[in-house]
Amino acid sequence: MNESACAVAPPAPLARGPNDYKSDVKPVWCPGCGDFGVVNALAKAMAKMALDPKDVAVVSGIGCSSRIPAYMSSYGFHGVHGRALAAGTGLKIARPDLTVIVTGGDGDGYSIGGNHFLHACRRNVDMTYIVMDNRVYGMTKGQASPTTEPDWDSKLSPDGTGLREFQPLVVALASGANFIARGFTGDPNGLAALIEQAMHHPGFSFLEVLSPCVTFRPEQKEWKKMVRPDAFRTTAEVPRAARRLLRDTGFDLGVLFAGGRPPYAPRGPRALRTPADLEARFAL
């Protein structure tokens, strides 16, 4: 008998479902927190793309939303406050074969991490940045964040801060992000589709996610009545996207901008080095 005829064919790759991309760590968020929706949508997107968890790295900073790496079965890195994009950028440049996803909140990303946000957009490294915006510092008990409305009255900011809100989509467009979109945790399937588009698009993809904080801002439960699905019409033209943002309500959803700028790539060939080679360069 022909030996090749008796050979056992290798097993077909197992299809992974969304739950295969979640770890066994139970989230500690408040019941009803919008961030649960982001974990579910991210897992759905990864399953749809049939990614291998070992080829994915989720990087975060500090805050409620930055706990996400612990809740995924992929590689994860929980960094310091505001520096998630710096860590993610270095990782993607060093390991371009990895799918790098950076997650964080409005405080981590737009306040202490604001400078890194600007330059991550400008550099256009091929990675995805998901920011969960609840317009409050939830983990540190309810301070106003960069995106908090100026008249939001709280115990820590009586009568409001009086400060104009930070405009993430405007800043991302002006700074050079190659993909800009906004989603809502109350629409998990729509959010999963946006995450998938962001991860597929080359260059720096920025996805703002409206993620209600039911503990410190219970009025945000009404966001489900205020969002406008598919309000954005995707364009590759910066001037047209900028004009559209003049009419943005802050609750318009969809892909605003999908540009064609080539992603950043290190110049010249990169020779692989061992740790000993690198140590020798710094020897005194």
In short:
The chain is α/β, with parallel strands linked by helices and 284 residues long.
| CATH T-level fold name | Rossmann fold
Q: What's the overall geometry?
A: globular
DSSP, total strands: 7
CATH superfamily: Thiamin diphosphate (ThDP)-binding fold, Pyr/PP domains
The tally of domains stands at 1
Helix content: 25-40%
Strand content: 5-15%
How much is the radius of gyration in Å?
21 Å
Mean pLDDT: 91
Question: In which order are the strands of the major sheet placed?
Answer: 2-1-3-4-6-5-7
Low-confidence stretches: 1-5
**What oligomeric assembly is this protein in?**
single chain
Structural class: alpha/beta
The largest sheet, given as strand count, sense and whether it forms a barrel, is: 7 strands, mixed
CATH class: Alpha Beta
Helical segment count: 10
Order of helices and strands: HHEEHEHHEHEHEHHEH
Q: Which CATH architecture is right?
A: 3-Layer(aba) Sandwich
Instruction: Kindly report how far apart the N and C termini lie.
Output: 67 Å
Describe this protein's structure.
- With 284 residues, the protein is an alpha/beta fold.
- It has one domain: Thiamin diphosphate (ThDP)-binding fold, Pyr/PP domains (Rossmann fold).
- It has helices spanning 3-6, 35-48, 84-94, 106-112, 114-123, 168-175, 188-200, 223-226, 238-245, 275-281, and strands at residues 56-60, 75-78, 99-105, 127-133, 179-184, 204-210, 254-258.
- It has a seven-stranded mixed beta sheet, with helices on both faces.
- Helix 2 (35-48) crosses helix 7, helix 5 packs across helix 6 (168-175) and helix 6 runs antiparallel to helix 9 (238-245).
- It is globular, with a radius of gyration of 21 Å.
